[in-house]
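Recap for those who missed Tuesday's class. We walked through two folding examples back to back. For each one, the amino acid string is listed first and its predicted structure tokens come directly after. Nothing is annotated here on purpose, so try labeling regions yourself before you check the end of the notes.
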Amino acid sequence: MEREDDVQLIHKILSGDDEAFNILVQKYQKSVHTLVWRKIGDFHYAEEITQDTFLQAYEKLSMLKDPSQFAGWLYVIANRLCIAWMRKRKPTMQPLDAPSIKAIDNLTYERYVSEQRETEAIERRYEIVEELLAKLPESEREVMTLYYLGEMPTKEIGELLNVPVNTIVSRLHRARKRLQVDQELLTMDLETYLSQWKLIAETLPEEEARKRIYPEIETLLRAHPENLEVLETAYWGYRCLPGLAKNVPLRLFDKILRYPNTEIYQAALFGLAERSEDASQKWHYYQRVTDEFTASDAPVLSWYLLAYEEMLRLAEVDRSLASDDYLDELTDGLLQAHLAFCKETQQYFGWAYTATVEWRLKFNNRLDKAYEILERAEIRLGEAEEQKWLVENNKGSVEKEHKRISHLRAEIYLQQERWEEAYDALSTNAPDYLGSLWTRFNERTLNYFYILGRAAEGMGAWEEARRYYANAHFAPTLHSEKVRRFLDAHAAPIHQAEGRAGLERVHHQIARRKTTDAFDAFLKDTEAEYQIREAADLEKIRQKFITNRRNEKATDFRLETLEGETHTLSLMSGKVILLAVGVSQPMMATPEVKLAYKHFSKVNDVVVWGINDGEAPHKVREFLDEYQPPWPVLLDPHREVSKAYQIESRPFFILINRVGNWQYSFEGPHLVNGQPLIWMIETLLSDV
């Protein structure tokens, strides 16, 4: 039978002709076996891997987008199976007197990094070559595949194909010339450098990572002609490490700024702003972004938008940076940039309008424009496309967005001292602040209570003002470390201080006196009333949490701590288990988890485990040293738990009952006084 080309054979196979696949096997079996044998060094195992290669190829043939690239695709499958086989065969070195996890020292981790770097380089090489192979005739494609993907020398390729070595060399030469690609770019490109540096930065201690990455960046800059791509690779290489832009030498910034109107030029301006200590210097670099680009020509539109936001943040801290007219100009620019960004990314346009109005309210700047922008937002919200986006992307509801617009309009009324209009708009469109502890105590809800109290005070409705000011003043702050820092710097002192000031004004109107003792008594009575309301609210939130059960069988796992202690989930039968899954930064919710742990410290039937999701051991050690959690922290280097429980956000909390059923999940760091974790554990303990 005359040998048919791969494309014809593949079409026949996909139509159900198994004999056509046998022809493909006969055509490539020898070359695949030779490739595998050369890689693993064992003739008989090479036969097994060759069989597995063709089995995988048959099963996945429908996924091959371009049948003309079958040969390269087949060799990639074979090479990956070789890598998997060698990893399985590689003996694990463990000291006889120590658990396995203790073997994860710097030397072991360096070996791991090296393997990962090699794998990433190979993967990237495959991608580049596969893209280029489609441009070649079959004879040249086959030789290029064996040479670059199969890593076979020309002599072996000649023997395999029964072709003189000179012919193989000629075909390689013609193929390279046809592609007009230098040989070096086929084996190592700039993206591979960067991916390696990112991996080193993620897996090695900072100082060790610097010792490796810095010399490689300098070598790259010396070894290649200075061009935009090389400079960009070096810039992002420096930013792989902690310190980000502060790592980048000023001489590299100088070179990058010779290439205006480029993405890396824009990035460099942000980098210079980032490393500047002085607000006016930061302002200068952000202003260059807004002056030198427009929404239509900015290389990265999100950065262009961010430049406006950063300038407004700086002006919020230091009003001398911008006049009222310039603030008006900046806010208009922000709106245009935000609308362009929403259009480019096909997102909800309402964000652009409401964000702009929020900035105008902060500066009390041109509120007539704020009215106009809110009208445009409502018109846009009435469009089917906008409503469809909200629903399909699960970003809210039309009703919720109408409420948001009404709240902003009410805040404008408030600044204009139109008290009744503000009060009516706010009370008519109350937010659903009983959905969770986060919605009950976040900045936006506290702001809602405060401005409603302000409107009531303006109307002379003193008791109503007292109630809303109390809700803003006495509310507990969120205890997530990151959220707490933000609130300490921004929202919490504002709401609490202004809430107290509002209560003092209300007390003066009610009691007609301002003696300290009288106000203290008033404050104490007001807090007692608030606690009653809060208890009722918390019970409503608690019921939402504890009644929403999953009741699924928990997936078992067996993981080790950094010290080598083994913990198996299935051995915890009879216990209520809390799994706190995360990495070092998101696990800043640890102080809140400690509250839950302490609450049940004398209950033997409660087990708390932290699951570190794929971080390097030195990162885990840093976390343990800083936070000193009293529960075991288990290493999950392959993220088995996240895969088994389909975890996407971190931290993520999983609660399992006494019989091993997964009952509750809780996402995010938004915990208050150990809740809702304590509620969930109490409920599971009470189960019969």
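Example two. Treat it independently of the first, because the proteins are unrelated.
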Amino acid sequence: MAQADRADNFLRMIQRSRRGRLKVYLGYAAGVGKTYQMLLEGHRLKAEGIDVVIGLVETHGRADTARLMEGLEMVPRVRHEYHGITVEEMDVNTVISRKPEVALIDELAHTNVPGTQNHKRYQDVEDILAAGIHVITTVNIQHLESLFNTVERDLGVAVRERLPDSILAEADEIINVDLSTEDLRQRLEDGKVYPEQRVRTALSNFFTPSNLEQLREMTLRELASQIDLRRREAISDEAPPTPDQVMVCLSSRGPNSEMLLRYGSRLAGRLNRNWYAVYVQTSKEAANIIDSTTQRLISNTLAVAKQLGATVFTYKGEDVADTILRFAREYRVGHIVVGSPAKRSFWKRFMSRKSLVYRLIDKAKDVEVVVVDTASVPAMKAPLEIIGEEAPVRAAERQVHRLAMNSLLGRNVVFWDEPVSKDEAIRALVHMACRDLPGCDEAAALHAIMVRESEGSTFLNEGVAIPHARLEGLHEPGAALGVARGGISGDDTGPADYIVLSLTPGGRPEVQIDILAAVCRAFQDRIFLKAMDSAVTADDVRDALALWAGTHREAT
């Protein structure tokens, strides 16, 4: 497609949109021409009468890029003092108050200097999009969070600045800026990418032919994956539900949990499915028994899983394999991802005690068990950076809008100003969800919820609880939302501020799965959380729900 045609496509998106649209120029390395192409489009849009400003562009000393900035309005940057050094960042508030139609914002994965209102630039972009401003931006493939281990393993580079895969998954348009590796290396030699003193080092280290070819292949694969996601979205309403959700099994001290989670994220993206991170807590690992270091490790791992887009569960059970398989049956899991088994002692081998992996393979029916080799890869010396509040969102999760979450929850909202117990909150929400739901037996619903909670708490350690159950006799789902400004005291998994209870028909597990995905997506949305945190009445909560549902319907 010609560049002018691409600009026309984005122009049509702008003209029919209310919420800001996002367009990403994707490349595989510095110097392929992402910023250059973004600025060219800025000039084309300006020629069409569109109000375009430069929110932030980094020239890196490239004369051609600097010349292209001429003729486009630039929003002044804001200065921050950090350790005696003056650092300039994008002035997000000025961009929003200026309210152009389109903002050009470079280097989406950039980490802002401490003291700015957002930790990452992609969060700045989210705020600008929420204000109704369209954004055109740039990013390289190696900055995707789920590719961190792949890039580190294949290229020997640990990428420091990363962003959630969801930013790319939710972009309205992705343009691959491609250049042959030979031409890119020639550009470096000609001094068009880095200053002369950096060229030799760059060519012999990061910009080797092998590295560039691998990065280029990753970019093309990712672009093909995004195209496939959008194709599946178009036919999703006609596709029958299949047990193909992805589940990542976590342990309290498993090596390289981050690697497992990234693998699960990539696999779910390829399959266009929801995915779960599940930690099975045995009696030996109860919160009052394990040491504080292990507790912190578990909590951090589950927090990372949430950041990567998983729906996170803590289950209780003495037989870990049976508990995992029970979860897989309930949530229609088709792929179980586990780490490779640790070396077993002579005594265990002598007693023929099978490892968890072998027991899963023996007992799993119609489920693929994917064993990721975590034992042979050294664990990361530092924990995975929590990369922000937004989490990866897969195309499958966009399908949940048809369930009208706003209508499910909007009429059933309860506020508690004082602390409330978990049991008290669940009873109130079950009553509210059942009162107008045909075929709902309140006593049976309460019993089912409590049984489910006894198996594994749905208090997720992130301030949100999602108790749920499937009931025979129901023909449609019901739900209720509780907001506890004094907190909801749970069990040993900790308190929650929000509790979303759902009841779904027993013979339709896909409905429950879609509702849980919608709830998790909503509470991972920065704008929705801001609205919820500022709500003081049930009507405010309904407004936040309506805004979230309406905004996302327009953007898909």
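Answers for example two:
The domain at 3-235 is CATH 3.40.50.300 (Rossmann fold).
Confidence is low (pLDDT under 50) at residues 13-17, 235-241, 378-403, 551-556.
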